[in-house]
């Protein structure tokens, strides 16, 4: 990976977020995009937190990634950043996105869980509020 000094220092502190990161191939070069490396406080020459960072890969590796992305409709994501012999390495993986049907199922499950939790909170909260107000349930 091609990084600036302040980026390496922030990575040594463990301050990197790979949540929305992906790899794009442009003009025969691989770039890691969406990685958030926070700006170092007090740095004279800081860096942009979410700038594209060039990956140092062999031409054959870049071509293999490009073909698999085009052919199978997959995407390349960064799974972790680590140090090896003083250099920052990025572990990347091919990932298949969810289909629209799968996304709808996931949303339904999340909504059902959210509604169940809200109902449980209302049930617990209603009895607790009544006790704190000095009210009793009719027996």
TrEMBL record:
Molecular function via GO: RNA binding
Gene Ontology cellular component annotations, sorted alphabetically: cytosol
What organism is the protein native to?
Sorangium cellulosum (strain So ce56) (Polyangium cellulosum (strain So ce56))
Keyword Iron-sulfur on this protein? no
Q: Where is this region: Disordered?
A: 101-139
Q: Name one Pfam family in it.
A: SmpB
Where is the sequence biased in composition, kind Basic and acidic residues? Answer: 101-124
| Record-linked InterPro entries | SmpB, SsrA-bd_prot
Subcellular location as annotated: Cytoplasm
- Name of the protein described by the UniProt record: SsrA-binding protein
Q: Which gene encodes it?
A: smpB
**UniProt cross-references to NCBIfam families, sorted A to Z:** PRK05422.1, smpB
As for what it does, the entry says: Required for rescue of stalled ribosomes mediated by trans-translation. Binds to transfer-messenger RNA (tmRNA), required for stable association of tmRNA with ribosomes. tmRNA and SmpB together mimic tRNA shape, replacing the anticodon stem-loop with SmpB. tmRNA is encoded by the ssrA gene; the 2 termini fold to resemble tRNA(Ala) and it encodes a 'tag peptide', a short internal open reading frame. During trans-translation Ala-aminoacylated tmRNA acts like a tRNA, entering the A-site of stalled ribosomes, displacing the stalled mRNA.
Family label: Belongs to the SmpB family.
Q: Does the keyword RNA-binding apply?
A: yes
Compositionally biased region (Low complexity) = 125-139
Keywords assigned by UniProt, alphabetized = Cytoplasm, RNA-binding
> What HAMAP family does this protein's entry cite?
SmpB
User: What are the GO BP annotations of this UniProt entry?
Assistant: trans-translation; trans-translation-dependent protein tagging
């Amino acid at each position: 990976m091609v990084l600036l000094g302040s980026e390496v220092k922030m990575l040594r502190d463990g301050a990197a977020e790979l949540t929305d990161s992906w790899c794009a191939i442009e003009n025969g070069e691989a770039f890691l995009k969406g990685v958030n490396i926070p700006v170092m406080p007090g740095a004279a020459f800081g860096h942009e937190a979410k700038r594209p960072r060039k990956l140092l890969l062999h031409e054959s590796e870049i071509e293999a990634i490009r073909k698999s992305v085009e052919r199978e409709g997959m995407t390349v994501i960064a799974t972790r950043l680590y140090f090896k012999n003083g250099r920052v390495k990025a572990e990347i993986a091919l990932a298949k996105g969810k289909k629209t049907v799968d996304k709808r199922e996931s949303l339904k499950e999340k909504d059902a869980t959210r509604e169940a939790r809200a109902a449980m909170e209302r049930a617990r909260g209603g009895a607790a509020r009544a006790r704190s107000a000095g009210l009793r349930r009719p027996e």
